Amino acid sequence: MIIDLHRHLWSIFERYTSVREIAARGTAVGHAHGDGVVQDVEVRAGEIRAEMEKAGVDRSCLLLGDYGLRLGEGDRSIAEENRLATDLARADPDHFIAFFGVDPRRAGAAELFRDALDAGAKGLKLHPCSGFSPADPVCRPLYELAREYSVPVVSHTGPLAAPLVSTYCSPLHLDEPAADFPDVNFVILHAGQRAYFDLALDMARWKPNLYLELSLWQGLFLEDEARFVARVAEIRHGIGLERVVFGSDCPGVSTVMALDGWVDTFRSLPEIAARHGATVTDDDVTAMLGGTASRLLGLGS
Length: 301
Prior knowledge:
The chain is an alpha/beta fold. It has helices at 12-15, 20-25, 41-55, 68-71, 78-91, 109-118, 140-149, 175-180, 193-206, 218-223, 225-238, 259-267, 269-275, 282-296, and strands at residues 3-7, 59-62, 96-98, 100-101, 124-126, 153-156, 186-189, 210-213, 244-245. It has a single domain (3-296), classed as Metal-dependent hydrolases (TIM Barrel), CATH 3.20.20. Helix 6 links the parallel strand 4 and strand 5. The longest helix has 15 residues, at 41-55. The chain starts with a strand and ends in a 5-residue tail after the last helix.
């Protein structure tokens, strides 16, 4: 089974009219800007299913970043956007898994999360670029619920363009939650990106409930295959590739590499690694592409 643990219904540019200017002036590559029109969910779901079929992806986890307290509210309310994901996952569980995304500073965030869990959500998504630290006590009620319902917490790491802020996007802000909630699994999305990769890996060495996810690494692979392989080798030697989960961050990075290309990259890692004197086994690939995520999500074998 192949599981994309990091998928979105719409990019940030499609969701937030106020963010379109990021695309115009930003230097970071890899985010589809969209046309500013939030599509019908069934239309978008059909597009994603077709993309998944082409790539051989069995399940896509729908993550939602809540930027409203930083950017102003999106074209839909955060409650409505979360309902779209949970309703879609309930209607089509063979393709979709919903995570609940919220800024923990929102009034009633924990109650909204519990409602989403009762409606079938399988995890929590945090996006500290909105201006909060995952170590802030305001997050603790959400982690308590993640523990109660045995679901993982995934959190963005690595810098992003203004008006989003990078202050709290170091994986270091996940250290205290991982220590205080050792029975909750935390996924370091983007594995810290280039700025914080070494820190993310070192933290994961010491805390077995920390996992790494490698979306936004598409650009690194295309720019410098040898460096990409070297980092994968570091992870393998440091914590084992069974602590890595596959994610695409589509549609945001689809302009850099399509979903099927990214899946094929992982499938080909044994051969790619060998070209650079490193080792990745078929068992490693199986774990990264879905085995580990299946376990984190409680899907069984």
